[in-house]
Amino acid sequence: RKEVEQDPGPFNVPEGATVAFNCTYSNSASQSFFWYRQDCRKEPKLLMSVYSSGNEDGRFTAQLNRASQYISLLIRDSKLSDSATYLCAVNSLGSSASKIIFGSGTRLSIRP
Amino acid sequence: GAVVSQHPSWVICKSGTSVKIECRSLDFQATTMFWYRQFPKQSLMLMATSNEGSKATYEQGVEKDKFLINHASLTLSTLTVTSAHPEDSSFYICRGGSSNEQFFGPGTRLTVL
C-alpha cells in the first residue's frame, strides 16, 4: 500500500462550483499534513498546512481525520485559476518533520 | 522569504553522459536538502536526503552510484545523474529550508536522447 493515496481525477467542474478532494495516508504516526498546488511543468507551491482542528484560508478549507487517516481539501466558488494538480503530503515515519511524502496528485480542471 | 534556486532549468543530453544539477539556498543555510523526481503525470518521488558534510540517505530502490549527491556547503547541494539513459528523463526537483518552512527549487527537466 502506498504511504499516501489520492484519486488522480481528473475533476472537471464548472466555475463557481464547490469541489472536494480526499487523501488517505497509511502511517498513523504521521504528524504533519499539507496540501500543495502544482501547475503544469512547475514546482509545487504550498497551499496550506492541515491542522487537527481544521483550517480555512479564504475559499479553501482543509480537514484532518486522524481516526480514518485521511485529509481533505474543499474549494468553494471555484475559479478558472484554480485549475491545477493538487498534491497532498504527509511527513514520513521516523524522519525529521521536514521529510515529506507526496500523493500522486488530483487534477482539477475548471471550465467557464 | 527563503528562495531555492536550481540550475539548469532544463537539459538535453545524449545517452551515456552525466548530468549535474545544482540546488542553491539563497538566503538560508541548508543543512538538509531533499531530492525528488517526477515522471509525467505522476507524483514527486523522494529519491534521497542530502546532508551537509555527510553522506546522503537514499530511498529504497534508488541507486546511490547512479545518482550521486554532494552537499559540501550549507548553500549548495548537487545531484549528478551518471551515465544517463532515456528512462532517466524526468523532472528533478530539490527542496530545502528550515524546520518551520520548506521551499522547492524550480526544478530541472532532463531529457536523455
Question: How many β-strand stretches of chain B?
Answer: 11
Helix content of chain A: under 10%
Task: Give the rounded overall mean pLDDT of chain B.
Answer: 91
Low-confidence spans of chain A: pLDDT under 50, at least 5 residues? Answer: none
Q: What is the N-to-C order of secondary-structure elements of chain A (H for helix, E for strand)?
A: EEEEEEEEEEE
Q: What does the oligomeric state look like here?
A: heterodimer
User: Distance N terminus to C terminus of chain A?
Assistant: 37 Å
Report helical residue fraction of chain B: under 10%
Q: Give the largest interface.
A: A-B, 18 and 19 residues
Provide the succession of SSEs of chain B: EEEEEEEEEEE
Overall strand count of chain A: 11
Structural class of chain A: mainly beta
Task: Round the Cα radius of gyration of chain A to an integer and report it.
Answer: 14 Å
Q: Note the beta-strand portion of chain A.
A: over 45%
Overall radius of gyration of chain B:
13 Å
**Major pleated sheet of chain A:** 6 strands, mixed
Provide mean pLDDT of chain A, rounded.
91
Q: How much of the residues of chain B is beta strand, in percent?
A: over 45%
How is this structure best described in words?
With 112 residues, chain A is an all-beta fold. Chain A has no helices and eleven strands. Chain A has strands at 4-6, 11-14, 19-25, 33-38, 45-50, 55-57, 60-65, 70-75, 84-91, 100-102, 106-111. Chain A is globular. The model of chain A has no long low-confidence stretch (mean pLDDT 91). Chain B is mostly beta strands and 113 residues long. In chain B, the strands form two sheets. In chain B, strands 2, 4, 5, 6, 9, 10 and 11 form a seven-stranded mixed sheet that branches. In chain B, strands 1-3-8-7 form a four-stranded antiparallel sheet, with no helix packed on it. The chains are: A mainly beta (112), B mainly beta (113). At the A-B interface, β10 of A face β4, β5 and β9 of B.
